Amino acid sequence: MRHTWIPLLTLIFVAGCVAKPAPRPAAKDLREVDVGLVDGYRATVVADGLMNPSFVAFHPGDGALTICDSGNGRIVMVEGDTLKTIVEGMHTEYWKTLEDGTKAFKLGPLTMAWRDTDHLMVTDAGVGDGDETVVTWELSSQGLARNVIINRTNPIGPTSDDPADKGEGNLSGMTLMPDGNTFYVCGQGSDAKSWVLRGKVKENKLETAFSADDNGISVNSPMQALPWRGNLLVVYSGTGGKDDGLLVEWDLETGKPANQWKLPGLLDPMGIALIPGSDNRFVVTDNNWALKSVNSGRLATVTLADDQDAKIEVIATNLMGPVHCAFGPDGRLYVACLGAKYDSDKGLVVAVEGFSS
Fold this sequence. Notes:
Blueprint: H1 5-17, E1 31-32, E2 42-50, E3 55-58, E4 65-69, E5 74-79, E6 82-87, E7 93-97, E8 103-107, E9 112-116, E10 119-124, E11 133-138, E12 148-152, E13 172-176, E14 182-186, E15 195-200, E16 205-211, E17 222-228, E18 231-236, E19 246-250, E20 257-262, E21 269-274, E22 281-286, E23 296-304, E24 310-320, E25 322-327, E26 333-337, E27 347-353
Antiparallel strand pairs: 1-2, 2-27, 3-4, 4-5, 5-6, 7-8, 9-10, 10-11, 11-12, 13-14, 14-15, 15-16, 17-18, 18-19, 19-20, 21-22, 22-23, 23-24, 25-26, 26-27
């Protein structure tokens, strides 16, 4: 009797070893760019012609790169080597007025989160402090004209007695939690009170959640929130041009800081992303902020230990104004950069490859 089980097992083994296709890039490479990377990494521009881009995300269906083109008051999606506008006409404002009366740093939608394949949550950040909200856009397959706002949260007004406190503004660094209903967003109102805000999708409600000031933390300007080991990790950029940045792990049960890590040597950390396959190793963008011009910024890997020690390794030294970063479905890190000049069309998104856990 002929034994057929050996070829059958061989067939099963070979079939199990067939390589799965790699995830497609979230955007097409336009050109390679020198951003001062250490050996082992490579950077390419994947989107350009933007004004003060502030945030990147990836469509939950096909993984397409989505960008907050903040200064232009719109959200764009990368299709091949073109930018497709999916949201437009959002409020914009100039953040500062210089000594000579020049208005500077035009901002609009600063952050977003895909709720599902057809609904995009965006901060309406181009209005005054105390008036900003989170809006939900329903995107239609019939084109841009059919895309509409279906929900708008409440704003957050003043939370202190300081006359300079007008309420929360420049809402940035939003993250949707694994439950699909809770989200957190960083408030940039008065430094009299620094807040991370909590929202509920189903209740369409925004409320104060974590105050640095109420917990003895003097570092202000929360910039990005991430779910991490059942809690919330938030990066605080601190004072512009000073290396007082901080990472705080907020305990979601107690509302208190569980851990804190200083980031010595990083002047203005603004974006943070967990390296795929790791549980304590992140990439942080160092914007090196200046109001009148864009400085060369950096990328660093940051490894967090339970003794509140952070190991920092700079891997790129010449990114022009890096703001937010996120890993795409292809394993590359996508970085939104202000470019050589803000309030212009010099903004871009750079993809960096070479990371391993």
